[in-house]
């Protein structure tokens, strides 16, 4: 039996600036509320049961799914982001369920093959108003998920939609009028009701930075596992190098895998601590009395400290050069782009080979509308499905 040491320092009551589920602005399609779940718990459950969430299991971030099952997928990444978001939300005294739901939903719009897939779909859609994965997430949860008898989408709460749309901050400023927004945003009929010129609520801000914490630290794990760089290669990095040295000093005979796991665990803790401390400093500075006050602030409430943010930029630069631009990763990116471009061009030119009922819609649609339908179809694919489908439609041997 282990000895309990101390207790976590958690708020005794919700923060005054939390998003209160009792004051939710509701859903755009009227429904009876659940007798057993809050609106935000219901949002979380709808995301988990969606087909888009299920397909994240074979969508990757850096490595293509068939390269091995040790690397993170969009699904495992989303689960890791949700755990970090809940931890931060609990320490700050805001709604954990809303933060978790935001984290689970934030990658629903990603196409197969990670950022390479997004870049290629955006290029394919250049003449048809482009492709943006954040905008596609809104499209998934408001239109493409078709599970309910009286409406398309998941009918998530206003707070969820607002947070997903503002994942990277306000959408509209004096320099970015509405027409500059991605088409998938502008297609949503209630977009302007989401207060696009303001920041998202505190839980959405937490989920966005939990995303950064997860992918920064877990890319260290995946990059070392793939042999793209070593622990020694990172010892010059601020914070990261110090943590790896401290693990080696404390456990000099520990194998590489456990050394990486322990270092990443500690690094995530440091990231979370800094995020909480800087957010608490801003709470003292701005004294927000509600979630609405958080939205109206001149800068985000949830943030890393300036010093820590500068230090983590060195890690991002390292990962960009040694991982994202590694020649092995570039080869996978090149193959992935060819797969998606050839599928897109084929389906746009020959909509009669699309599956029903997509075929009927695409055949009758004007070219720009057909392109968006094809884009939706491809964006929803998993890595393996896209590879198998490409093989079936382009490899003559599959006819034998």
From TrEMBL:
| Xref: NCBIfam families | dGTP_triPase, PRK01286.1-1, PRK01286.1-3
Q: Which InterPro entries match?
A: dGTPase, dGTPase-like, dNTPase_2, HD/PDEase_dom, HD_domain, PHydrolase_assoc_dom
Q: Which UniProt keywords apply?
A: Hydrolase
Show where the HD domain sits.
74-216
Question: What does UniProt give as the signal peptide span?
Answer: none
Give the UniProt record's GO annotations in the biological process aspect.
dGTP catabolic process
Hydrolase among the record's keywords? yes
What is the protein's given name? Deoxyguanosinetriphosphate triphosphohydrolase-like protein
Give one GO molecular function term: dGTPase activity
Q: Which species?
A: Henriciella mobilis
Q: Name the protein family.
A: Belongs to the dGTPase family. Type 2 subfamily.
One of this protein's Pfam families, by short name? HD
Q: Which SMART domains match?
A: HDc
